[in-house]
Predict the structure.
Amino acid sequence: MRPKRWFKLDNAGKLYPAVATNRWSSSFRISAELFETVDPERLQRAVDRVLPRFPSFKARMRTGFFWYYLEEIKVPLEVRQDTGHPCMPFRFHQDNGYLLRVFYYRRRISAEFFHSLTDGSGGLIFMKTLVVEYLRMGGVDARFDQGALRIDEKPDPEETADAFLSMPLPKVRASRKESTAYHFFATPEIPHTLHLIAASIDCAALKKESAALGATLTEYLVGVMLYAAYRDQRSRRPRRLLPLRVSVPVNMRAYYPTKSLRNFSTFINPGIDPRLGDYTFEEIVREVRGYMRYSLNPKLLSAVIATNVADEKNLVIRLVPLLIKNLVIGSIFRKAGDRLVTATLSNLGKTALPTGTEKHIRRFEFHLGCPSMPMCSCACVTQGNDLRLMFSSSIRETTLPRAVLRFLVEKGIPVAVESNLEDD
Amino acid sequence: MAYCVHCGVRLEAGEKKCPLCMTPVYDPSAPPEPEAPRAYPVRTPEQELKRNKRFLLMLFTVMMVAPAFLCLVIDWMLSGAVTWSGYASSALALLFISVAVPLIMERYQAYWAVGTGFVCLNVYLFLVEKQSNSGRWFFPIALPALALFTVMLTVIILLFRRGKLNKLTLIASLCAAAALECVAIEWLRMRALQLHGGFAWSPFVLAPCLIFALSLFFINGNRVLREEVRRKVHF
């Protein structure tokens, strides 16, 4: 019998199992909304055919003496009907050890990923491949292109490789020091709750507004979120003003092309410091634009990654037993982590539909799991003229989505919303 | 097609209130259908039953602190000193620690429970030995017996978490571990007190426990029998 394959966790993926608890684990969900109701049996067959093409996704988390690692799973992944509890924490001994879940609900196919497996880009490739295979099984002439992988091809070793280790890294390391950021007032919900508010935004109108300020869509949206936080902090009249930051994940594939389906992203934290004085919305967008254009260059980003990779390569750190590593990483994450940012905005960008699927896929959706602190995360993906902005949180208040979406409406941008909030 | 009167956003079909400001949908020309399908599945009520750890911890703290305090007060009032209440309150304190620590911990709760239980019990027994002047029995008997039981329990938990044991074999393993522990205690006692003449009481515990454990392992190996037992004793 062939021994089970195993994979080392990538540099970014090493953090997530160390900080995962029964209440929280870092995850995200990518969905494809079709024009027809999903057939669960066909979806199950499609998953069975597609998953072997993604060997690093067909794996369970195992505990080594020094690091966690992924080990191949031989039992199939079961698709399930979606529940009202999206992005529940992953527990490594449940679901046959899978760190990936596939759901169906009416016309939507969803896949949830534990963040150690992959990032949003890798997840989107999996979802595109799955949907193409699902449609092909239904007799649709869909092609494995625009990101969807051919399932009759053997997995390329580069797809399961850690791209962080193959990219050129400078000897200079970027500092990680940042102070605590302002957070919206939040009442935590009971554990395992994730409130979703999904907004469909007219992309052309949004682009016009952002272009008027010389900003990209991401810069504009970050500006809106910061402005919402800025106004909220001012209205509360705190004794001490805190800086406002929005964490923006950056896909490193844009700078170092790779076929890797593992994590290959870092993040930057554009923000403003209200202690310096009053800001107008235009000023905030200008600050964000300047910061992002300065930070988003391969040299500075690789310096940030060099810091993380240096830790992973440090002989002393490598020789520390996993249990102690977990305790240290956990305490650092609790002190830093989400405390340093007011909110998160993850923009997956513009997605192209695989050929032949245009009449079958209505749109893709992307949202993050519950943040580790009582706060709101935001993710978006664009398809055609539809920018799908999704807010996820496990708090009662809807301050951030309300402020952001009302602001866009005030600017004359059409917004349509739906949610998973209870009616009562 | 309805719009929120406060936020100005368009509300998709199925939304009965604005998710941003909770204002109910008001569209006289198209009142919301009560059974209209939602865009996303909504939260189910069973989630409300999830235990609230903080509440449990507070409740447990009160349950432990109140009797401990009461014991100390009564003892002080009756004898003017802390005599018997020391045992009671320190036992409650150690019980509190051994329960609260795993409850606070988010991960490896079972291992934390075994670890803190081992430490607390050792501390308690050591203090009892020191206080009672009943001879030296902690290091020769209590400590190795507890260490053996902790090791056995840790191995069983590890096997269970790795999926090597199911509920039936878990009970069997615990039973066998308890029987072996009894033999170990008697052997340690004989060695410590330099008694000769073989085992007196532990074989009477060992035999039924081992028979019971072996029966469970046998049932577990037989699929039909296992299903029958599961059907009969499920709750």
